[in-house]
Specification:
By secondary structure, this protein is an alpha+beta fold. The chain contains 11 helices and 16 strands. The longest helix is centred in the first third of the chain and has 23 residues.
Length: 532
């Protein structure tokens, strides 16, 4: 057998082994193992949310698929061979690595550069369907620590309300920007979009990619179906809000930016692209990753042995060495790191308990003169469309919120750039200055937006929830969608899918019963798990 054919055969065999590991461990489509957390997001829930002035920048969704996130899994991981192949192994409650898989459907490819660090604007250099965005990770479940002070306008808290509601949960209360005017407020002013609580974030930005490797592919440097790639670079950042106070060696000083790799794997039988990070939790795992026997103690330097525990330990050390009268303690941003003085890094190495937010989107076809970079398409956790108070469901109070907003702001001269008294709020400088109540994202808040707000449980469409709705709900649960034309079923689903998981089944009954009895609506779960 020729050497090239032999190498190709071995590569296909390794490909099969890798894919078997991915499919077997992919709890997004299989029961979760005990060592990881699985969080789902409905497929097909994308909504295009431009950020350029006018909200009309060319993105060409006919040629470039809007990124559609369908969920993630995270937990402790033990690779079979940490130095050679960290992606083959098993979920392990005693594992020393963190593994994060997040998935897109039906296809996505690595992002190209957006001229952030150079003049090179080439978002489609690795394929026609790049995904851009940020994944923020709160490791200590403490909103008082960590956050983003460099570019908070590109993060979840600043953008989730573009999708028509507030996300449910105490970690988002009073922290979500509901209009563009709130994006320019400083960090100690509500809604505190800079204070996300993140310790780390993953960047999906081609400007941070320094190398790509086609593990399985045709060598043309275009990510295509049935290929597996590695992208390398500074793709994992410790929260930039820590940098003014940290003694980490950088560069830049105070930064912790390890060189990591993300694996991109297209799995055609599942119609998904799985993006995977495997990274050391401990310094011993960092040594194993490099194939070194000597384990370095934490030194705050991300370019030798580096790990999560080293990065978190540096936070505690950086505060502990500050004198009580040091001027840094009076910096208004100091609260971002202050609590780490009393926290111990090894206590926060349980990835299955970390809190994650995702904000993903696509690029404009050409570089925008106004500096806009992204058109967002999906978030996780989702906000229930029309849930303006973050209760987890649409209530009668939400139904009247659009009209109340129009009455309050028509002609107010700040949000409204139109004519007073026309019963329309014309959003000035749309879309950078968006508004949560602009449900159809056309730059206007008017009565048409009110039609987008469904009263949960009102499945007979008479603007109340009563016994007549109960009969419709029971009938629809028995029939499912098979006996209903698609448009009618979609309308029912929008008002009866209390879990917001894209399905109408018995698990939605509790939410309906709560609404029928007049009690508080059943909240949307933070984690919607399938297969438990």
């Amino acid at each position: 057998m020729p050497a090239a054919a032999e190498n190709g055969g071995l590569r296909r065999m390794n490909r099969a082994a890798r894919r078997g590991a991915v499919v077997a461990g992919l709890a997004l489509v299989a029961p979760a193992a005990f060592a990881q957390m699985v969080v789902l997001d409905p497929a097909g829930d994308t909504a295009l949310r431009r950020t350029d002035f006018g909200g009309n920048g060319v993105v060409d969704i006919s040629s470039h698929l809007p990124p559609d996130l369908i969920g993630y899994q995270i937990g402790k991981w033990t690779p079979d061979d940490p130095a050679e192949d960290r992606y083959t192994g098993f979920w392990d409650p005693n594992g020393q690595f963190v593994r994060l898989d997040f998935c897109f459907t039906p296809f996505a490819n690595p992002p190209g550069p957006l001229a952030v660090k150079s003049g090179n604007y080439a978002p489609y250099v690795y394929g026609d369907h790049p995904v851009f965005g940020f994944i923020e990770i709160d490791m200590d479940d403490n909103l008082a620590t960590g956050g983003e002070t460099d570019a908070p306008v590109h993060r979840y808290l600043a953008n989730v309300a573009r999708f028509g509601g507030r996300p449910f949960g105490p970690r988002f209360t009073n922290r979500v920007a509901t209009n563009g005017q709130e994006l320019g407020l400083w960090f100690d002013a509500p809604p505190y979009i800079q204070r996300s609580g993140e310790e780390f974030h993953i960047v999906l930005l081609g400007d941070e990619i320094t190398q790509v490797e086609e593990l399985v592919g045709d060598g043309d440097c275009v990510f295509e179906p049935d290929e597996t790639w590695l992208t390398r670079g500074t793709l994992l950042h410790r929260a930039h809000g820590y940098e003014p106070f940290s003694v980490a060696s950088g560069p830049p000083l105070g930064a912790y930016l390890p060189q990591v790799e993300l694996r991109w794997d297209h799995v055609p039988e599942l119609s998904v692209v799985v993006v995977t990070l495997v990274y050391p939790l401990t310094q011993s795992a960092a040594a194993e990753k490099l194939g070194e026997r000597y384990v370095e103690p934490p030194n705050g330097y991300a370019y030798d042995q580096n790990s999560i525990v080293e990065a978190l330990d540096d936070l505690s050390f950086s505060v502990q060495i500050l004198e009580s009268n040091d001027p840094l303690r009076n910096d208004p941003r100091f609260p971002l790191i202050a609590d780490w003085e009393y926290q111990s890094a090894p206590n926060y190495l349980a990835p299955e308990s970390w809190q994650l937010t995702f904000l993903v989107g696509m690029a404009y076809v050409a570089k925008k003169p106004d500096g806009a970079l992204f058109a967002w398409t999906d978030v996780l956790p989702d906000a229930v469309v029309g849930d303006f108070d973050g209760s987890g469901a649409v209530t009668p109070m939400d139904v009247g919120a659009v009209s109340a907003f129009i009455v309050e702001h028509d002609g107010d001269g700040i949000l409204d750039g139109g004519t007073a008294g026309d019963k329309i709020v014309h959003l000035a400088q749309f879309a950078p200055f968006f508004c949560m109540y602009d449900m159809n994202y056309d730059g206007l808040v008017d009565e048409e937006d009110g039609e987008w707000v469904p009263l949960m449980g009102d499945v007979d469409f008479d603007n109340d929830v009563d016994m007549a709705d109960r009969q419709v709900m029971v009938t629809r649960l028995l029939e499912g969608g098979e006996l209903m034309p698609p448009p009618q079923f979609e309308k029912i689903l929008n008002r009866a899918d209390f879990l917001r998981d894209g399905l109408l089944d018995s698990r939605d009954l509790q939410g309906f019963v709560d609404r029928l009895m007049g009690g508080p609506p059943a909240p949307l779960p933070v984690f919607a798990r399938r297969g438990d």
